[in-house]
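Researcher: Please predict.
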Amino acid sequence: MDAIKPLPHVSSFSASVFTFLDDRFRDATDLFQSPALVSELKTEISELDQRLTGLNRQLESGLASYASFSDRIGGLITGVNSKLADLSSSTSASVFHSGGGKEEEEEKTEDVAGEELPSLAKEVAQVESVRVYAETALKLDTLVGDIEDAVMSSLNKNLRTSRSTGFEEVRLHAIKTLQKTEEILSLVTKRHPRWGRLVSAVDHRVDRALAMLRPQAIADYRALLTSFGWPPQLSNVTSSSLDSKSDDVQNPLFNMEGNLKSQYCGNFHALCSLQGLQLQRKSRQLGSHKGESVLFHQPLWAIEELVNPLIVASQRHFTKWTEKPEFIFALVYKVTRDYVDSMDELLQPLVDKAKLAGYSCREEWVSAMVSSLSLYLVKEIFPVYVGGQPNEADLSSEAKVSWLHLIDLMISFDKRVQSLVSQSGILSLQEDGNLLRISSLSVFCDRPDWLEKWAEIELDERLVKLKAEMDDDRNWTVKVQDELISTSNVYRPPIVSSILLQHLSSIIERSKSVPAIFLRARFLRLAASPTIQKFLDCLLLRCQEAEGLTALTENNDLIKVSNSINAGHYIESVLQEWCEDVFFLEMGSGQDSPQEVPGLENYTEPSEGIFGEEFEKLEKFRLEWINKLSVVVLRGFDARTREYIKNRKQWQEKRDKEWTVSRALVGALDYLQGKTSIIEENLNKADFTAMWRSLASEIDKLFFNSILMANVKFSDDGVERFKEDMEVLYGVFRAWCVRPEGFFPKLSEGLTLLKMKEKQLKEGLSRGGKWLRENGVGYLSEAEAKKVAKSRMFS
């Protein structure tokens, strides 16, 4: 019979043993549980013995594998040494040869060395490669074995329940070993790309370990959150308290103390480390296939686990506020704001410790809250607003108002939460898709049909207001008086054009809230472009009405057309100025692509810009009606100069010295000056300049073809009369330029020829085109010059 072993002395007990005994034996009644405790401890000891036996077998297998590699390497090294010895002996033997064969033997030795050395070097390199491979494989096998053991230990129920501190240490050891393994794999991938099978085999085993470790880590994190009262109570939230920030908000994250806080920080850090490890693995794996790391931003798992129970608790309130969505947005903003400070103060240092570069807890908290809200909007709110009415025409006016109210709430909410993010001072909302993650309007990225419906409703509301303002004639007569708009004084537009720009500005401002560039462009094409087109149609209609009534013979009709041209040119210039802004330039740069968005597969942005088509239409309208103004004045001028043109004899008669201009031309010149003055007074300077230059060119062709090319005979007095008439005609245009005769090139050069002496004219024309150019005649052809010369009568 075995002797009973005495109990060890109490002083030899460790602190952990005292803790264990204190937990198990709190009073005398707990002594009755001793047999069960002994059985439990024996079971645990048995399991640990089995694991120890397995580890011993694994160690034996590793040692055997290493011995096999060592034997192989030893054999290769022995072979190399043998060949090196043979080479050395052959080289030494050649030294003892003498006489005339010495040089021959040296050459032979060099040939042998030249043939043997490359193969020897290759074998040495191969041996070294095998050695490195063997060491690396053995090291990775050992590390992965440690990982698998640590993961299995972390899943051991007895270890988890009886020794929480040891469990956390085991999991931390597993994460550190995973990080070491990943560092080795990264080096192998870079330096030895042909070792792909080894990397693949290790990745497979590590993936299996992670598949067990991550879910358990998240489950432990959730249990810990529940233990210290997360999520906080929202039962006292009312619609009246949503807009105010309560000073007595209970934040369980700040209320943690002692061991509980230490456990939470350890769990949070472990989750962040696991996520960082996964990002490194993805970066390496994608880099090996694509040549670079192409990663999408992953939300922080630990922050998501904080947000999810909060949103679940909030949804009980959301269901009561389906008809009042403003309360939903207010509640989400309140929760986001009330707990955002703890992200910076408590959790951000843990993220930095885990070396998760580029992550801000504040941003991740806001992003997770906004994403959860967006998901609720997609599932519960928008389907109610869309309902069973697929067409915008089916929506009632109340439904349209509700749509626009919801969009206003989303835009306002986005601005408020983005201000929370920007307070950290480390985030640029316009870079790397950050805006997309903290915007509730990101719902339109997956549902472009909802964006189109919003644009249609927005357009309909704008057109209703714009039509009422365009129908008011006073808006077409009063000019824009805005000193802040530098172009208003240049183009002298009616106030209706300023009203249109206000509507366009509002549409553009609303589009800026859309987080994706290509969707902003799509929204503007659907809402802003048709608004411009509607205004252009109104301009065209007004001009056509004026033309149809009086053929633009009345001054009021000229004024009406001039105001329409001014309005169109002003809109064109302002849009051109806007499109030089970075906001519009980004839309044409192709920074993001709609290829992954359903419904936009065939959508492409015009190369000429977001308003390229509208620019072309506005320019075409302007040029067309400027030309019509010129044609109208020319038509009236032509009708009043017919008698003057038909009177061919006047150029052979003596001129009346009492008149400085022909009587038949006076009425036409008065008409010309009157009409151009009306147009000058009402049309903007740039377009008026184009109009009178076009008019001058047409009058030049009219007189040149009707008089100088009509076989008319000019006497000396006739030439003088024609010169004086043309001087008066030039005088009408002298108010807008210094040398108006330059805009009547054919008449001016014709007069130059008519004023020449007979001998000079005949001799010059015989010399041809060179003489004409030397005498300043460049627009007339040689044939036209000769015909003008034939019309000259010399006394």
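Model: The CA atoms of residues 455 and 714 lie 70 Å apart.
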